[in-house]
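Help needed: design a sequence for this.
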């Protein structure tokens, strides 16, 4: 086969306004009607605001715009210690992050919203409402096609930015205001439908916790509530000798419908993992899965892992490969601030040192019952067994093994798991439908605007 021939590319001199080749070799097949530049519709806005004015009006300072185009503000108290000048963002304005605009960090501050302050890293623009629908413009500026275009506009090396003039030079499609509103309404009707489905899924998740709690007779408390000075605490109220634990929400079993058993008495095996030497290339990219916390990602069943190791790594490093059907729990990770990731393996896998692999006596406790228990009552697990360290959160193994687990007869455990499995199936279907609707909304919006 003859190799493709590469030719020199000639750029007309009048188009060569910057000595930056990436903006000329990047292929752009976007075609659309009613073309305008952002210069035509956006007017730069700059109004300096003092810290005193910010404090007096209780205006906050921007923290960031995330990749989803959402605004995050700093606490009001941080104004006192803020260093640098500030500009005020009024309502009905568009702002973007110079560094991350190419990732979608553009925000529309709608009409009637409270002003806030930004640094010069966030250019501010106003626009004519009789010609431009703000929500439409925001969607266009955050579209995948627009993000690709913005990547050709960055300048700089260590922290590449999109300068204001470069941003405003970009061309976009701008149909009539009536058409803009129709496109936006169609988009948001699907988004609202998706959000309604997500709300139903969230309600079902709450129903799972309520059902599990009622069935087991678990009572959620509000913590002991320590105050300054000398505190007297009833011994029966203490779940763990930790001041931090005493102030957290606690689950108690004083009205449990069933007896409890310490987790250590339900274990058949309990082991840790290790990491083969990263310096040994012959230890990696083999045919044996090697699981670490990043592989959990909200799952309940583990079907794959990102990393793999070789048989040589297993043999020389003394690593154990665990069979299918084993519980894996994260025992060291920042995620333990709010979650206790636990899965059942559907693959054979080795694990790293941040995980524990264990099996339970299935004569006493149903596998799904335990899995649903630790996912539903993760706060209970974390309250009793988590510990803070200088570097990262972790689970104290001794405390974990002492955790009491309510233990109904196996028949009732299975009745509970069958009900929860049905609710989780409904939840999963609702979330999948919501995800599809959101994807359709995005695709239809871009198809309406851009033709390639």
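Sure. Designed sequence:
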């Amino acid at each position: 086969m003859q190799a493709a021939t590469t030719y020199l590319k000639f750029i007309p001199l009048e188009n060569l306004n910057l000595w930056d080749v990436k903006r000329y070799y990047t292929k752009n097949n976007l075609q659309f009607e009613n073309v305008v530049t952002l210069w035509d519709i956006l007017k730069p806005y700059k109004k300096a605001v003092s810290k005193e004015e910010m404090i007096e009006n209780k205006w906050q300072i921007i923290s960031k715009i995330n990749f989803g185009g959402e605004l995050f503000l700093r606490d009001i108290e941080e104004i006192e210690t803020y260093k640098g000048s500030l500009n005020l963002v009024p309502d009905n304005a568009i702002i973007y992050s110079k560094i991350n605009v190419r990732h979608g960090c553009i925000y529309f501050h709608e009409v009637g919203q409270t002003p806030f302050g930004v640094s010069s890293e966030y250019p501010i623009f106003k626009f004519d409402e009789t010609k431009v629908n703000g929500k439409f413009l925001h969607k266009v500026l955050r579209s995948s096609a627009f993000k690709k275009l913005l990547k050709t506009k960055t300048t700089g090396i260590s922290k590449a930015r999109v300068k204001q003039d470069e941003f405003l030079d970009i061309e976009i499609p701008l149909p009539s205001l009536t058409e803009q509103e129709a496109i936006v309404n169609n988009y948001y009707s699907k988004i609202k439908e998706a959000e309604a489905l997500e709300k139903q899924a969230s309600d079902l998740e709450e129903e799972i916790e309520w059902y599990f709690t009622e069935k087991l007779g678990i009572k959620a408390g509000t913590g002991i509530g320590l105050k300054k000075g000398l505190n007297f605490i009833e011994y029966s109220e203490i779940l763990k000798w930790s001041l931090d634990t005493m102030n957290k929400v606690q689950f108690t079993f004083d009205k449990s419908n069933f007896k409890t058993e310490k987790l250590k008495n339900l274990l058949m095996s309990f082991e840790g993992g290790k990491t083969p030497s990263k310096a040994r290339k012959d230890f990696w990219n083999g045919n044996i899965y090697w699981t670490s916390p990043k592989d959990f990602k909200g799952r309940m069943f583990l079907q794959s892992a990102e990393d793999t190791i070789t048989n040589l790594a297993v043999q020389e490093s003394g690593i154990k490969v665990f069979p299918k059907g084993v519980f894996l729990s994260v025992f060291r990770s920042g995620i333990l601030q709010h979650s206790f990731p636990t899965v059942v393996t559907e693959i054979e896998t080795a694990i790293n040192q941040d995980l524990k692999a264990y099996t339970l006596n299935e004569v006493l406790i149903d596998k799904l019952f335990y899995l649903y228990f630790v996912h539903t009552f993760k706060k209970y697990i974390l309250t009793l067994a988590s510990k803070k360290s200088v570097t990262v959160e972790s689970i104290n193994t001794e405390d974990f093994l002492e955790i009491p687990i309510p233990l109904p007869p196996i028949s009732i455990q299975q009745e509970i798991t069958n009900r929860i499995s049905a609710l989780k199936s409904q939840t999963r279907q609702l979330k999948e439908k919501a995800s599809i609707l959101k994807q359709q909304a995005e695709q239809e919006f871009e198809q309406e605007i851009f033709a390639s």
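Residues 214-414 form a domain with the Adenine-n6-DNA-methyltransferase TaqI; Chain A, domain 2 fold (CATH 3.90.220.20).
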